[in-house]
Structure formats: C-alpha cells, structure tokens
Amino acid sequence: MNPLHPIKHLGRYRQIGMVFVKHGFGGVLDQLGILKYLQLPRRAPETAHARLSWGERLRLALEELGPAFIKLGQIASTRPELLPADVILELEKLRDEVPAIPGEAIRRVIEQELGAGVAALFAEFCEEPLAAASIAQVHRARLRDGAAVVVKVQRPGIERIIEHDLNILEDLAGFLDHRTKWGRIYDFGGMVAEFGRALRNELDFRVEAANADRLRENLRRESWVRVPAIHWNLTARRVLTMEFIVGVPLSPAALRAQGLDRTLLARRLAATWLNQILRDGFFHADPHSGNILALPGNAVALLDLGMVGRLSGDRQSQLLKVLIGLIFDNNRLIVQALIDLGVVNDQPVNLRRLERAVGRVREKYLTLTVRQIRIGEIFRELFGLASSFQLMVPEEFAVLGKTLMLLEGLVASLDPDLSVLEIATPITKRLLLGKLAPVNLKQLALKELIDYGLLASRLPSFLMNLLVKMEERDFALSIRVADWERIIDRLTRLFNRIAFSIILLALSIIVAGVIIGSGIGGLVAELGNAHILRLESLLAVIIMAGLVIYLIRSGRI
After folding, report:
1. Which end of the chain is more exposed for a tag (fewer CB within 10 A), N or C?
2. Residue 245 exposed, middle or buried by CB count within 10 Å (0-12, 13-18, 19+)
3. 3-state secondary structure at position 308
4. Is 50 exceeded by the pLDDT of residue 2?
5. Which of 436, 439, 404, 431 is nearest to 420 (CA)?
6. Which string of DSSP letters, residue by residue, matches 68-85?
7. How far apart are CA 422 and CA 195, in angstroms?
8. pTM
9. How far are the Cα atoms of 33, 101, 501, 557 from residue 498, in angstroms, in the given order?
10. Catalytic residue numbers?
11. Region of poorest pLDDT, from 73-82, 463-472, 545-554
12. Are 319 and 400 within 8 A, CB to CB?
C-alpha cells in the first residue's frame, strides 16, 4: 500500500520530490523509499547547484518550496542535535522576501477582516509596503486622530497553501516514524505537530498582538525598552495595527550619526533578553537587527512578536541549574539539569559518560576569559551532545539556544568585547537568591504539603479497595526467601550507604552555601552568619569523619 496515498496531494508530493531531486537529494529520498511511490528519477540533469554544499542546496530547495518549508527550515536551524553545524549556518540564512502583492488585494483583506473599507478606517493608507514577506506585508497608515501606525496584512490565500503543506509534512513525518530507523530515535510526528501549532499561531495576528501586550507589561520596569502599542479595534485574525515607532537601525553608522552609545545599548539588550528568559519565562525569540530599533537616550524598541519563547517555572529552574553549573564549574549539576529536563528517552543513558562529555565541553572554555565565552555556543554544544546520547531536547530549549545565539551575534556587532555570560552571572545569582527567599520557600513547602495531603487523602480508599479485593478473591501472598541472613547483611550495608550519602549531601549543602554566599558578593557576611556557618561546617566534617571511621571498622559499608 502506498503510505503517501492522498490523491489530492499527489501533485504537490511530486513537486516536492522533483525539487529535492533537482537539488541533489535524490539518493536520500531513495534510501527513505519515497522515490518509488512518486515514480521519480534518482538523479536530475547536472546543474550549477551540484557544486554547492549540502547545506546550501537544502536552503535553496526550501526557499523554492515556499513559506511552510522556509519556516520549517528556520525551526530546524534551532536543532543542533538533528543537523550538523554547517547545515544549521546555511538554514539560518533562510529568507522569505517575495514580491509585493497589489494594493487592491490588500484592501480587500482589510475590508473582509475589519468590516469596513480602508478609507473609512484610516485617514491615510500607503499602498507601497514597508516590507513584504511570504506570509504578510506591512504598510504605513495614519488614524483619524492623527496617530501614525503600521498595518500588517496577511497575503490572500496563504493560509490555505500553508495548511495544505502542513498536511503533507504530517504524512511525511508519519512515514519516517513508522518506516525508518530514525523514527525510533526522533519523534518526527511530534516535531511536525509542534511546528504546525507554532505556524498556525503565526497566521493568527491576534496571537502576535497578545504577545506584544504581555511583553510590554513584563518590561514596564525597564524604562528604556519600548514595545509598540496595539490598536485592538483595528486588529483581527489577518490584520494587525500597531503604533509606529520612529528609530534608527542598529548599524554602526546610524548609531554614530545619532550620537548613541553602542556599548550601553549592547549591555541593555543583553540584560533585557536575559530578564525575559530567566525572570519572566516569556521572551522575544527572534532578536536580530531587523526587529530592533535604537531610540534617543540609548533606548530600544522591540518589534515583530510573531515568534516568542516560553519557559515554565520548572524549565526556568532547570535553566538556572545549567547556568549555575557553568558559573561554578559543576558538571554534575549540568547533567542533572539535562536529566530534569525530561530529555531522556526510552534508551538507557550512561550518566558517567555524559558527565565526562559535559566536562569536555566546559574544558574547551577554561582557558578563555568571561568576556571571551559565548554562552550561546556552550548551549549549542551541550544540546549537540543529545544526538550521541540519544537525548531529546525539549522544543522550548531548542528555541532558547537559537535565541541566545542570535542575541550574542547582535551584542557582538555592537560591542565585540562584551560577553552575555558576564551579564548573565549577576542576574543568575540575584534570581537564585530570590528563590531562596522565605516567601518562595514557604510557597514551595505549601505546594509540597498540598501534594502530600492529596496522597494521604487517597491512601485510605486505596487500602480499603485492596482489602476488599483480597477478601472477595481469596487473595493470598506467599514469600520464600533463601539465605535470609546474607540478604539482611546486604540490606544493612545498603542502608548504611544511604545514611552516609544523606549526611554527605547535608555537608555538601552547607559547603555549597558558603561557596555560593561568598561568590555573590559576601552575602553571608552581610547577614552576620559567617562564624555560625564556619562552625556548622567544622561540626559537619567532624561528624562525617567519625561516621566514616565507624562504618569502615564495622565492615558495613
């Protein structure tokens, strides 16, 4: 049976296949078993593309196939565990600039979405677009009250085209999952489903408008950051109207002409993105120079909120773990954070080997100063270990890694000597202290209490059901244990080791508290508890030494 059976898609399947064959991927399609279903040749006539690299040919193929495939390539460029670095660099160049569509077609979309003609809605409307992309184009306009705005209008028919291609991608993902060895390692169906959700959200401009409102609220304390205000009465699914902000691009010449401080702008951009990520868990995921304007007073405006990243509270805590591991040279903490991410699939993982691999990544940067370290590169390498250890990086962390890479490139273009890690270190320490604040510890304790309370409330009914089943079914349980004394001895050794580990953990927490307290600007001294902590540390060491001597002499460890 043909796994690519939908007749209505057959023409598009063949078109996609021909494009990939044309760009030299016929062998790959043949290995996947797709060519025989589409009845296409394995090789295309020799073209100039044959001399290009694998990544260049893939980029050109995706650009030729249209918006859904361009967006797919842009998403794939955030997944270093799936593709080599040189291919990712090419996919990062994907652009979807296309010729502008006529003004009359744009006017029809506005009228259909807003229920009135352009002349009735705007005092002025410029039909010449500021920018034109595969999904939408942007026009300048002026409201009846004189306010300057920009109007983003979706290209007619693009939703139907993208939906059609998403259905095809879902079919192809199912084919790969069920008929190839890669499908047993990577969840292609899940990836395409996530991609489809993100792209469908991008097609609904109301989602982008809500993103802008949320980001503006999150950044209200940072007076030097502006996010365009949304005119909701002139916004719908396919039309977005927002404040027009006058600024200059982040080019050296433009900044110099306006007398703006490039170093201060770089530090502010790094700080605001790190606060979005670490503090708010909601961040602009496309920080390139085209989406940012410099304003008087070394302020910035953040534009185009179509692509955002989200981190839950747990994900933020795991990210903090990774950063703390990087800052305090703790490989085991980084590995634990990767495990906590839920990235381990059904395949067994050698944690010792993973820890050594993480250590090798860190060792690469030991000889560098903080200013030389690129945190985005470290994250990319850490996530790149996933492929060799068959770990699956969550989608939100893949987006995060890509965002950090873009951010560091932007910061480096403004101030090559500034490191994002240098800005991240005090922010990380401040947020770590915040998590240790009494109010947060109280909330954590309350959450745990509720969880245990729910468990306790369910325990009586569980035991009652078990007793009823035992009575009704004449339930009997027979246990025979051979060599009981030897097993008791082994259990004793096991529990001794557990006790030893718990006390070692307590000592580690105390010592870590001293180290972290020293590392964040003498916090312990400020609280007046330095002598107490030193005394506690000494007592813990004495207790530990006594425990070790006892267990070794007893032969029970």
Report:
1. N
2. middle
3. strand
4. no
5. 404
6. HHHHHHHHHTT-TTTS-H
7. 33
8. 0.68
9. 53, 70, 5, 10
10. 286
11. 545-554
12. yes
